[in-house]
Amino acid sequence: MKGWTVLCASPLDLVIQNMAQLLTTLQDPQLVAQFQRYCGLSLQPKGEANGTSLGNYPLETNQRGRGKTTGGNGITQQNGNTNHSNGSYANGALKQVNTKKYRVQNYFLYYLFRFAAALGQEVFYITFLPFTYWNLDPFIGHRLVVVWAIVMYFGQASKDLLKWPRPSSPPVVKLETRVDAEYGMPSTHAIAATAISFTFLWGDTRTTCEHAEAHMSQVKYVQTVNSAYLFWLGFLAALFLSTLVSLSRLYTGMHTVLDVICGALIALLFLALTYPVWGEMDKVLLSHPLSPVFTIIVGFLASYNYPEMDHYSTTRADTTTIIGVAVGTCVGVSIGNLDLNSVPSDQFPLPIPAISFHRVLLQTERFLLGIILLLITRFLAKTLSLQTLGTWHNVCTKDHLVRQRLEIEVPYKFVTYTSIGFVATAVVPQLCEFLGI
Predict the structure, then answer these.
(1) How far apart are CA 280 and CA 276, in angstroms?
(2) Extents of the domains making up the chain
(3) How far is Cα 434 from Cα 437, in angstroms, rounded to an integer?
(4) pTM summary value
(5) pLDDT by residue, tens only, the chain of 437 residues
(6) CA-based nearest residue to 169, from 56, 47, 42
(7) How are beta strands 98-104 and 53-55 bridged, if at all?
C-alpha cells in the first residue's frame, strides 16, 4: 500500500516531499557536528582529564560557576550545554546546567574561524565602519551603515518571530555562550557579512560620474571600479569573506546549515531589491530637512516595538545598538552641512592616491583620535542616560536585571549608540579637518 501511494503521488507532491526532506537535513544538528569533526573539533569523551582547559562560561544570575576542567590533546574547553524551558533561557537567568569538554585538533582552523566569527561582533563594527568613513569614503561608509542596520533589523526580528532553536549540544560543540539564549533562524552573522561585503563592492561601483551629484563635497577621490578584472577580484573577496564568516557559525556550533543559508539569501535578496533605489534613498536621508527628525522617530519606535520575547536574550539590545548607530550616522551626515549638489572638479574616475608613510600616519592618527572620542562618548552617554532613566523610573540601574527591562534597555542603548554614530560622522571629521589630519 505504501508503494502504491508513492507511485500515485503527483510530481508536485514528490517535489514537496524532497524539499521537506532537504530542509530537515539542513536543519539537523548532526550535520553541524560532522562539519566540526571534519575541521578537527569534537566533543571530548568522558573520563579524559589530562590537559589544559580554556573557554567561555555562561553568566549566572545567582551564582557564577567557574569550575575548570582539564582534558586531552589539543585545546580543551568548556562547552555550555543549556537546558531551559521552551529551549531557551527563562526569566533572564543564564543557568549552566551541564558542561561538555571539547578537543581541538586543527589549531589553524580553530583560530581562523574564531577570528571570522569576531567579524560579526561589535568590536569589528566599531572599528571597520568608522575606519571606512574616516579614511576611505564617507559616502560608502554611510551607505554601509544604513544597509547593515535595515537588513539586520529584519534578521534579528525574524529570530524572535520564528523561534527556531539553535543546534543542540551534544552532538554539537558550542564555542560561544553569550548569544546561546537567542533563537537561531536566520544567522545574523551571515546576514551582516554578506550585506557589508557586497554593499562595499556594489556601492563602490555605483559611485560613478552620473551619480556624482549625490556625492559629498569633502570626498577627495572615488575608488570607481571600471575594470572587469578589478570588479571580479572584489567579487571574489566579498564572496570569500561572507563565506568564511558563515562557515564560522557552523564551526562555533551556533547555527544549523539552514540558518546560515537563509541568512545569506536574505541579505542577497535585500540587496538585489534595494540596489536600484540606493541613490534616491541617500538623497532623501542626507538632504531632506526633516530627515534627522524622521530617522530618530522611526529608529526609536522600531527599537521600542521590537517583537515581544518569551524570555530575555540579547537580540533586542543588539538590535537597538545597530539602529542607534544608523540613526546617529544619518543625523550626523545630514546636520554636518554636506553639500550633495557639489561635484568634484576633477574628471571621473578620480585617481587613487599613492600609499605613502605620511598618508598611513595621517590615517592612523585620524583613526586613533576617532576611536578615543567614540569611547569617551560611549561612556558619557551611557552613564548619563542610565542615571536619567533610573531617576525617572525610580530604580537602581546598576542592577543587571533592571537594565534588561524594556523601558530601561531600549532608551539607554538607543541614546548611547545614536550619540556614537553622530560623533563619528559629524564631530570627528570636523575635528580632524581642524587639526589638519
Answers:
(1) 9
(2) 114-435
(3) 8
(4) 0.76
(5) 444 444 456 777 777 887 888 888 888 888 988 998 988 888 876 655 443 344 443 333 333 333 343 333 444 444 444 444 334 444 333 444 444 587 888 889 999 999 988 887 777 878 888 888 888 888 888 888 999 999 999 999 999 888 888 888 788 888 887 777 778 889 999 999 999 989 888 765 554 433 444 444 344 444 444 456 677 888 898 999 999 999 999 998 889 999 999 999 999 999 999 888 888 888 888 778 888 899 999 999 999 998 887 777 788 888 999 999 999 999 998 887 554 444 444 444 455 566 777 888 888 899 999 999 999 999 999 999 999 998 898 888 888 888 888 888 999 999 999 999 999 998 998 888 888 88
(6) 42
(7) unpaired
Cα gap 275→280, rounded to integer Å? 10
Which residues sit opposite 78 in a β-bridge? 55, 101
DSSP 61: S
Number of Cβ within 10 Å of residue 115's Cβ equals 13
Q: Which residue has the cell 546549515?
A: 257
Which candidate, 360, 369, 388, 370, places its Cα nearest to that of 332? Answer: 370
Cell of 362: 595621517
For 48, phi then psi, to 5°, come to -85, 125
Q: Which three cell numbers stand for residue 303?
A: 527599537
Residues noted as catalytic:
189, 255
- CA 406, 407, 410, 413 torsion-angle sign: negative
Provide CB contacts within 8 A for 339, sequence distance 6+.
Answer: 216, 217
Residue 80 and residue 58 in contact, taking contact as beta carbons nearer than 8 Å: yes
- CA atoms within a 13 Å half-sphere pointing along the CA-CB vector of 67: 11
Residue 101 grid coordinates: 569538554
- Which H/E stretch holds residue 78? strand 75-81
Interstrand relation of 98-104 and 75-81 (parallel, antiparallel or unpaired): antiparallel
